[in-house]
């Protein structure tokens, strides 16, 4: 169960990372649409687990976009630190996971139509 502080920090990270992906990281991560669907943070506020949904565009695949995120994790954390430096003493380590719940829902809907 997450505390109120954890929930506030999770929402803050979610909105800031969404903005970073849309505005600042387009040239690095390509033209794919990246949505931060969920953020959970550990009780000691040291690790943030970020779930992203990716709609690949321009010939990219989800795996290549996730690899690009993994390759630029230091830069993403630095940009997050510049935004949240006044609100958080320590910026948590970021762990990115692919959220495939939308693909799962589409597959269920496709199966139900048949």
Quick overview of this protein structure:
This protein is 53% helix and 21% strand.
User: What's the helix-strand series?
Assistant: HHEEHHEH
The shape is globular
Q: Can you give the helix content as a percent range?
A: 40-55%
Mind telling me the CATH superfamily name? Answer: K homology (KH) domain
Look at the structure and give the CATH class.
Answer: Alpha Beta
Quaternary status: single chain
Q: Compute the gyration radius: what is it? A: 15 Å
Average predicted confidence as pLDDT: 88
Structural class based on helices, strands and sheet pairing = alpha+beta
Query: What is the spatial order of strands in the main beta sheet?
Result: 1-2-3
Number of domains: 1
Count of helix runs: 5
Q: What is the strand content?
A: 15-25%
DSSP summary, beta strand count: 3
Features of the shown structure:
53% helix, alpha+beta, 114 residues, 3-stranded mixed beta sheet
Secondary-structure map:
Blueprint: H1 4-24, H2 26-29, E1 33-41, E2 47-55, H3 62-71, H4 73-84, E3 93-98, H5 101-113
Parallel strand pairs: 2-3
Antiparallel strand pairs: 1-2
Helix pairs in contact: 1-4
What does this molecule look like?
The chain has one domain (4-113): 2-Layer Sandwich (GMP Synthetase, Chain A, domain 3), CATH 3.30.300.20. Helix content is 53%, strand content 21%. It is built from five helices and three strands; from the N terminus they run H-H-E-E-H-H-E-H. The chain has a three-stranded mixed β-sheet, covered by helices on one side. Strand 1 and strand 2 (47-55) form a beta hairpin.
